[in-house]
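Late entry, evening session. Most of the bench is empty. Finally got around to the prediction I had been postponing all week. Sequence below, unchanged from the version circulated by S.P.
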Amino acid sequence: MSPSTQTMTETETTPKPRRSGRDKKQAERFVLGASSNKRKRNEDTDGDEMMSAAESEPEKGDETADEDDYVAPKKTKATSKGKGKARGPVAPKKPRATKATPKTTTRKGKQKEGGDAFDPNKAFAESKIANDNGLFNAIMNPSAALQGTVEDFLESLSESPEAALADLINCILRACGSNDSVDSYRAVDYDGVVDALDDFTEVLKEDNSPTYPLTSKLPAFKKFRKSLSEFLHRLVTSSAELATLYTSDLLPTLQTWVVAMSSSQLRSFRHTATVIALELETALCDVAAAVEKEAEVITRQREGERKRKGKASGAGRDKEFEGKAAEVKERRTKMQEFLKEYFDGVFVHRYRDLDPNIRAECVHAMGNWLKKFPAHFLDGQYLRYIGWVLSDANTHVRLEAVRALVSLYVKEDFIVSLHHFTERFKPRLIEMATGDTDLGVRVAVIQALSAIDAHGLLEEDQREKLCLLVFDEEAKVRKAVSSFVKGVWEETVEQRLVGKKAGTEEKDRAGVKALALLLVKWTRALDTNADTAVEDGENGESQNDTPSRVNPHQKGGIALAVEALWEDVETVSDWQAMIDLLLLDHSAGGTGNGAAAVSSKRKQKKTADDAVVDEAWRLEEVEETVLLEVLTVALRKSKTEATGGKKGAEDAVASEITRALIKSLPSLFTKHQTDESRIADVLLIPEIMNLEMYLEMRMITAYEALWDDITKQFLSHSTPTVLSHAMSAIRHLMSATSLSNTNSAKILELEDELSSSLRDAVARRDELEVASFTEDEALSLGAICARLVTLSGTRDMTTWMEEDEGGKQSSAWDIICALAERGRLGYKEEELMVERALHQLTLHIIWKARSFVAGVEEADRERLLEALREQRDILLEKLTEYAIGTQSNAIEGVKRAAFQHLMTLYSLFCPASTTGPDGTQLPLAPLALTMDDEVQYRCAGFVQAEIERYAEDMEGERPHRDTGSGDESQFGSGSELEEDGDAAKAKKGKGKDRAKGKMQESDDDRLLPRSKLEQEYVLNTTVATFLRAIRVGAVDVKHGAVLLTHYGRIGSAFDISVRVVVDSLREEGMHKDNGALVATVITRALQDSFTLYLDAMVDNDTHTLALSKLLASCLLIRGAQLAIVKRLESDHVVDIHTNSTTWITKVIAGYETNGNKKGRTKAVLFFRVLLQLLVAIQSRDALKIKAHLDQNIAQNKIEVSATSKSWEPYRAYEKRLTTAGSKEKGKKGRGKANQTDDAVTTDDDEEMEVHGLVTNASQFTQPTQTTMPTGTQPSQRPRPRPAYRSKNAVSENEASDVESRPGDDNVDGLSAPPSPPVRNSATPAKSRKTNGRTSPAKLPSVGGSQSPTHSQTSPRKRSHPATDTEEDDLYVREDGVNGNTVDDDATLATQSSEIIVRRKRVRH
């Protein structure tokens, strides 16, 4: 037996116990791929035993035959200096490595097998991280026993601290994704930490995308974060138990390295170090809390000992306790220092890191510290960090902060310490709950505020704001606030029952009263907030923070609130209690003692106690209204809930509801029949009933009474809501087939009642067309017509309309036609009557046409067709005269109604609607109707007038926004901008002003008052009927230009509707070969739209630019990968540009003649509009357009300035044409790669473009200076920052080449005005372009000096990209110019690649 084997055997028989006293456990097998290569120094040991030791200790790192039982992986450097050899002969400790096999037990209890087993070789190969560190390998291995690893490390730390610390630091480096290592000397060289990290950083910078475990998506790192946390926690806890935490350099060394790494420029170092520091702080909190508890125990023992034995006899014990107290105090001091060092060194800086993930880690850790060690951290100086990050821009960070607060407020003991924090940050929490952009954050904040309110820390107005969320649009928010609302409701119920001995019935009634009271209170608060928001919007104040709510007055608002409270507030689902309370006579409410007078009729039926409504549950009228709506929703919800229950549960619930309603519904009708809002809710109740129950219970009389009640409401009310609800109830009654006999009789009775009421209203009048009506008579006739329209909307009333009893009386058709004829008189009080009469006549024609579609007998076909044609022509004559005629005095409401019905009839009988897809004639073919051109033009004029009227009204209501004259401030206002020294400043704020303007417009749309919303609805209804007529072919699509003119001006709903015209134009041009029509419409729409800007009817040309971009889609169709599938014929594209340029040059010439420079400057902006239509222009077409443009400029004698900023749009347009025209030569030499006209521009294209510009612009420019050196790189212009030109002199030719990317959507990004041109005799050369501006070329100087370099003339140049590896302060920073957050991950491309990439984005 060899000496080494004999030594190992002896050691195994007498194992040395651990310092911690823990038993060594059996480990799972874990084989490292490189373990055999790292144990070559143990060749003198037995091979089998060596392999066993290597397999059984994966978490301990590399074992050697030296005296060290835990050696750092990079110990080779120290060994070369002789340190390893000096410790080599001490071999007896080596057997502990083989004895340690019981130590590495798995954390999960089982080693994974098969495909899910941890493969170290594969893991390290995928991650490219060296597997030379035992600690890191143990953390990587999900089956390693980390407690054993920690104990072995601590033993190694006590015997060879430098090597162990080096091993730990190398483990951290591996966790950062670095393969660099430190030796035992460098690990404890605190002064050299920063230099070492700089070296490691330089190495990792070479890797463009360094991978590190915390962010890696590799399966091997799936549990790394959890394992790392567990390892650090066990390390701190075990070292505290062994007192190593207080006596060794473990934490000071970690602190030195981790704090330095947490401020690294590399995100991998910074993120990993921050996580490690936070986890160490969390573990220290556990230890510190234990030490604090130990100190309290010793203090109690000491005091108890003194009380028990007295001062004289307890001196010995006191000394012992004093020694313990001093020792504990020393540890407490140490812990305070450790906590402070990590907090100040890492958290204070990283909680505001640029990376939101790091900020979220910090906030999450702070929440853990507050829970684990509140004695230290539950203080204002630490809580303020949580409050500050409540305003963080990142959602996850805010969410972590709110979660931390929720965990604190649920503990009663913390409330006193949180009082000051709560008072300070309550407003912010309320703001987050009502208006945060993230739904999860809002829900979490609501939970936090509910916990705060449980301790009575919320004010009454704050509680009300929180309760209003029950009407929020988001279902999760409504559900989250329901528990809070329940608490408020319970408090209200208790207040209503104060001083009363209430039973179950009294509590139920008080609960219903409290619910109605709160809903009314909250709806009033919402109305107040809405009115305030509208006023603020009218005053031009921003309303971005206004939370979105469902209007409780709209049908569905209360329903959503009831649905949210359904499970929490039991009264919401108690519909029986609601019915009982609603049936009481609340007008006879008593005093506080419940004594009040009641009607004699009720006294006869009830006792005094039943008749008197106690003040505790007496309902106000508005509360009854709300409670009726709640009752309706609760009944529907109860029936719906039963649907998903047991079999037959739905029928049982429906039967129960029907039985209760059969008894109570007549009383509800009787009680609320005079109130329109309440009776409208009552009329919704019959739809919930199971009408078959009437037949089963043999209660036909009650069913007839229900019919009578509904019919009575239908005949006595005229508001649209009541009529529509009554009609819905009638339809539900008619659906009961088993009661069809009763239904038929009752519906005929209703028709007879309507006929009688109509004839009675016009009785004793011979000529209705000219007879005089009082205002009451006009209202009565209008109400009758409204009921007829409602009934005709769902029922065929043609027979009823034409019934004349054999000529004995006038038919309803004749009477209503006479009433409609009164529209010529223009009486304001008869407006509604005439509108409804026209509607009823239109419905009659539609029903008769429908009968032909359904089929009629052939014998009666001709007669019926002739009768329908006669009635239709009579109605069309009236509608045409009222809508677009000149011989009537019809008022605006009648005109709009007539126009809408006119478009409906023409759409119904247009030739396209009477012919099938296969060309076959439909039944209505004999009645085909074609609209004359004159009528079409008049209809288009009517729509134009309606739009103009609405736009003027909206402009009058909307506050004036000084957009700085938007484009005027950019291109000039009354004088050339090159003479204005503040031009650059005017341009700087342009982008933000425009964005702000758009936001304000959207806010104004959202906050329009009810009257304006009604106007918008009327306009959109009129436009919709006109669009429908265009779409079906009744109106020529060319008249769609009237709508296109106002695109982007009216509102989003209008813009969506107008897109129908664009679809029709695309269809005409691409599929019907009607390109001439498309060109005509586009040209006219653009000219009319821009004329609005020239005439100062709009503030800027934004809407025209938006229209141009929209119409560009009519010129071509793109397919997969933006390839052009089909395009409009080139002749028509040329026509669009030639006609437009002819028009605008004449306009410009007119302004020039009149000396109106301001108007001229505005007119030149039209070339920006045309620039949007040059998408994929072909070279031959571009040359034609360019020639035509030059001819127009020459004919109109317009002088185009080469340097004037106001002519920049023209130069951009001309440049794009020149570039497109010059591509023909370039394509001949480049083969098939560039056959398509819309291909991405290459460097050759760019060069050819510049050359072509210089060549073709010579007729307007002077010779230029020399070019810039080719080696000079342009500086990148971060958009939307403005571009600046150098103050050095440039030539006119160079100025004409100011960059405005062809096809660029943002044509506004033009350069600031240059200095006056310098003329010299240099030969014209190509002007070098940069991204967004023209770089000044070198000019010859008299003194021989060169002009300033590009870096000197570019104030915004960035010398290199601010990548992740080159962050300076690592904090969230804002640009001092425009407030934009600096993107530290931006990449600066080279000149040529930058141009190509940008063109890809623009062209596509």
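Two things to note before I forget:
The chain is about 60% helix and 0% strand.
The chain has a mean pLDDT of 75.
Will write this up properly tomorrow.
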